[in-house]
Design a protein that fits this description.
56% helix; 96 residues; mainly alpha
Amino acid sequence: MKIENGYNHYLNAVRQNKDQAQAKGMSPKPTEPIKNEESVQVNISDTAKKMAQAKSAGSKDIDIEAIKKAVLDGTYSFSAEKIAQGMVNAMNEQGK
């Protein structure tokens, strides 16, 4: 998920520059206050959307505590080939 508030960042920078200019006496009269935008734009990635769909579709529940215990015990097994294939698939998806 990516949250962008570039416009608010811009407005804050403009406000700060004007305040600094007034403090240094560079701007003789105060300017009209800038309206503060209350909202931000939120972009949800395709991966996050797929995860939400899978979760709502009743995907199998993963026992996180059991996985943590197995990792700590050193008994957790994994397939390097499956991980590598998943990474390749993810990179291919990003390239589209």
